[in-house]
Amino acid sequence: MNKTAIVCGAGGFIGGHLVNQLKSEGYWVRGVDIKAHEYGNNNADDFVVGDLRDFEVCKALFDRPIDEVYQLAADMGGAGYLFTGDNDAAVMHNSALLNLNMLEISRLNNVKKIFYSSSACVYPEYNQMDADNPKCAENTVYPAEPDSEYGWEKLFSERLYLTYHKNYSMEVRIGRFHNIFGPQGTWDGGKEKVPAAVCRKVAQAVDGGEIEVWGDGKQTRSFLFVHECVEAVRRLMKSDFLGPVNIGSEEMLPINDLVHMVAKIANKDIKIKHIPGPLGVRGRNSDNTLIREKLDWAPSQPLHEGLEKTYQWITEQVAKANEVVI
Ligand code: NAD
């Protein structure tokens, strides 16, 4: 018998790629999301369009035995969505509610293993003030002081999942994603994250042109290609390690350098105009000590390889969007 899985957030970026991975491994997969996949990236055997804040919708997903649940649904976006403060109530309410629902319904249906996608945003702001030396080892998360309400909700939900492990012996797995990027991710509209936004701006700019970057561009981040993220998630699920564990890259760089890297891929001379905008922490990098030790995992490709694929895909999207306008 094939293993069965539900992927929550299958209409989203990472969830869509995860569905494809599970299918390639022979799983029967049910995807669920409040919306269909924007780019048609969905090979799920069954795809339910439904709101996971509604417990009745969650219940209906379990009309057959389910071995594994992957909970990736969340009300989320890039800095322009998460760090302005304008969406805080929605982010906390929506994500907490669907986590409470999916965890409880999975328990009631004796799901064998459940994965929860947490975030690097759980780490305290006080350890991420120095752009060159941020601290994001898993055991530095307390005393807690995430810099966003999104991070607080992730921390609450991590604890929620851990209580289900403690009190109900549920097999929980928790990964803390660090800036995942790649094709078929949101690339415009305000919810896009840094790599997609930079690729879009460079794709739309003329050679010798200028693009806008929030802040002085010296804030640092690391970025993980989506296929690597999915591979790490699968490794974690196959292991007996509970987590939370970082799933990210240690190749940290300032945003200005990210722009230069994309400009080089595009073969364009691009100038940067720094403008005020929501920034998040000053520096952030994945610390992969624990995941190397527990799962023998590390990213297999450098950042520029993933960026080449992403830039190519976003260039195609920009061209398609221009055709529609014409
Ligand atoms: P995404 O926004 O593309 O996917 C999330 C999906 O959840 C969306 O398709 C959305 O429609 C769906 N969703 C939201 N509310 C829902 C509801 N009430 N009912 C059903 N579906 C609902 O985001 P992503 O980048 O694929 O991220 C997946 C998960 O990983 C999220 O939990 C996110 O917080 C976490 N994460 C992502 C990153 C990253 O860099 N992409 C970093 C850290 C953590």
TrEMBL record:
<dbReference type="Pfam" id="PF01370">
    <property type="entry name" value="Epimerase"/>
</dbReference>
<feature type="domain" description="NAD-dependent epimerase/dehydratase">
    <location>
        <begin position="6"/>
        <end position="248"/>
    </location>
</feature>
<dbReference type="InterPro" id="IPR036291">
    <property type="entry name" value="NAD(P)-bd_dom_sf"/>
</dbReference>
<dbReference type="InterPro" id="IPR001509">
    <property type="entry name" value="Epimerase_deHydtase"/>
</dbReference>
<keyword id="KW-0520">NAD</keyword>
<protein>
    <submittedName>
        <fullName>Nucleoside-diphosphate-sugar epimerase</fullName>
    </submittedName>
</protein>
